[in-house]
Amino acid sequence: MSALVEVLEVEVSAKAQRRRFTAEYKRKVLQEADGCTKTGELAALLRREGLYSSHVMTWRRQRERGELAGLAPKKRGPKARPVDERDREIADLKRQLARAEARLEKAEIIIEVQKKLGRLLGVEMPPDPREPKSSTGKS
Which pTM does this prediction carry? Predict the structure, then answer.
């Protein structure tokens, strides 16, 4: 006797996601919850909708405070800061300064190599106007 076994594939998401409730859904549930007068009606509503009593308590508090926006899903995480145009300009100037300093460093290395090559070949180089003049007369 061989038994026929049916295998059901269950699809499970890799990462759990928080449930988000629309403002309309919250209003509908609160209206139904306010209409529950008999014992066990509210519990049945919560089981049917898959909610916790804390959801209803929180939504009622928000409604009492007049927070209509509080009934909408809230965005999580840090608040976005508006970008200041001066900060952007400062960052751009810092990048330009770093590039200019890198080019200057390369140019100074090239000049030193040219001086050394000139000394090796015996070519007289003109004095560098940026360097202070020495008291001995030789450079």
Answer: 0.42
